[in-house]
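Thread: quick sanity check before group meeting

JM: Hey all, I'm pulling together slides for Thursday and realized we never actually wrote out the predicted structure for the chain we discussed last week. Dropping the sequence here so it's in one place. If anyone has concerns about the input, flag it before I start.
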Amino acid sequence: MLGTEPQLKDSYVKSGQVKLVFNPVLSHADRSYQTHQAAECAGEQGQFWAFHDVLFENQGSFWAGDIQAMLKQLAAETGLDTQSFNACLDEQRYYDLIVSQDEIRRRRGIRGQPVFDINGEFMVGAQPFEAFAQIIEAQLGQ
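JM (edit): ok, ran it. Output follows.
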């Protein structure tokens, strides 16, 4: 998605034709809970998508060590207000939100990742921009 996302934003999101919504997949125990909450905490500073990208780029480092310490370090490295970010993460401010979003995903039968829901039409797996564009254009009637 990281390669396709900028194209989608430029072609459809900026014009208001498409809205990107990210829903968590809590399939890796506490590490999933912490990383998803970290993205929401970054969102408080208007940096959800930027931090989302940082998390995906660094996901290989999340399997060992103190996950919260790693997330706080990434927040500092990316220029977030660390006092605000750290307080948000320490409070587990978004725990209930991400759990409820994950429950919705499971009720809809979405088990794998990535899965893209384009107005009820599911696309499974990483896809090129053209695959998204074909579905979006058809739904826009273009």
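AS: nice. Residues 25-108 form one domain. The mean pLDDT is 88.
JM: adding both to the slides.
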